[in-house]
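Example record

Each entry pairs one chain with its bound ligand, fe (ii) ion.
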Amino acid sequence: MDYFQTNPVPIPSFGASTAVGATMDTIFDWQYELARKDLMRLYEKGKAASWNANEVDWSIDVDIERLTREREAMGAGGMLNSVLNPPRQLSDREVIDFNMNMNGFMLSQFLHGEQGALVATAKIVQQVPWEEAKFYAANQVADEARHVEVYHRYLTEKLGLSYEIHPSLKTLLDDICSDSRWDITYLGMQIMVEGLALAAFGIMRLLMEGEPLIQDITSRVMADESRHVAFGVLSLQGLYTEDMGGNELREREDFIIEATHLMRDRLLMHQVFERLGWDAKVWVPWMRETPFMVGFRQMLFSKIVPNLKRLGLLTPRVRAEYAKLDLLRFEGMADSVEDPEVAPPEELVKLLTEFMAENAPQASAAG
Ligand SMILES: [Fe+2]
Ligand SMILES: [Fe+2]
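Structure tokens for the complex follow.
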């Protein structure tokens, strides 16, 4: 796909490229048993479902500002001022700027996360011991390159506004890529990062209703991502048992807890407030504490929690941490084996709608 980069992604302060060192074993599987039929089936599905970024209709004119204005006219600004209860009332212009930048920020983090998935999954090809998983991971690598392509083009050519990687996401990607243990790569990328992305894409689709290009891109990417998350669950199933040894399991718990905090922090979006020239010392705490945003961040864990449960990783330690973050309410939801193809937007939409209904009257009465 050839396109003109009108608004390049900003280069981060740490440079145009970075290196992460790792020492790891590259595993060859000379047995070619191909006995893991569930992975072989997923591999076949992945190949059949692959698409080309050229198929997307790039001629669609994207005008987020107009879209936001239309919403504004329908009372969106008033809703933002009442439901989100910001530190000060925002003018119509500020609501538009905030929305535009939030979209640009979220989509930019998708872009950087996609690049992370591209390299992390290539690492899985090298490290995973079974040929079936190497096959599937190779197919996923191609998916991820396409995802980087479409988000990059959307951000630079259509939205014209983008952000560098959030430091917490960078730390998490570095952690995943420098770890020598193959299961940690899966745990970090397929279970945590992609699990969160799957929920985030569902919300993105909802927030950008009325913009057909991003709807198409998001639907295509989501269909791929739901397979990627299923790939992680199928590959790690049965690995985390009590006879794994206390320390081994404990290290996985530590990793999950650390990754959870990093992912939550990146959703505080301090870069957005800095760019808008709003005081981050005022706005970040608001973002951390306002009930709507707390609920929004929790919802992003709705796919991760049931998957950790299936893998036997919702251990008492992880559970205690997740109880503090009020994330255990998702443990009863369908995991990626029970529901491998269908992403969870319906459940998310329901939760989001319920949340707004619960919070709107009381917040507007207060404001
Ligand atoms: Fe992806
Ligand atoms: Fe993916």
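Residues 360-367 have pLDDT under 50 and may be disordered.
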